[in-house]
Request: fold
Amino acid sequence: MFDEILQLVKEHVGGNPQIAAAIPPEQADAIHHEIATHINDGLQNQAATPAAGGGGILSTLENSLSSGNLMTSSVVGGLIGSLGNKFGLPSAVTGAIAASLPGLVQRFTQKAANPAAPATPAV
Reply:
């Protein structure tokens, strides 16, 4: 699952010109890994917590990202802090990455629900 998340992170971050232009090329792989690790950890934490009302782990995480609940805020906050501290990314870039997380999780959710479907959303 981590490799799938990592691949989607690379596609999603690379497809966002604001974010891609601000990431130094020599740090891109490490930053992609950091983002994927935080998403993967968030999914694992959600798996350890029973989903209220059903719907599955991925939909629960997707809903929590869009609603800004406490668990999601801590994942996003941890990621933003990590990207700023480890890689020296400015707040405009880390904010753009945080803002892109719901879309990234939605793409992963769609891909997990239908593995034969393309990972990129229809425009």
User: Anything to note?
Assistant: Residues 2-113 form one domain.
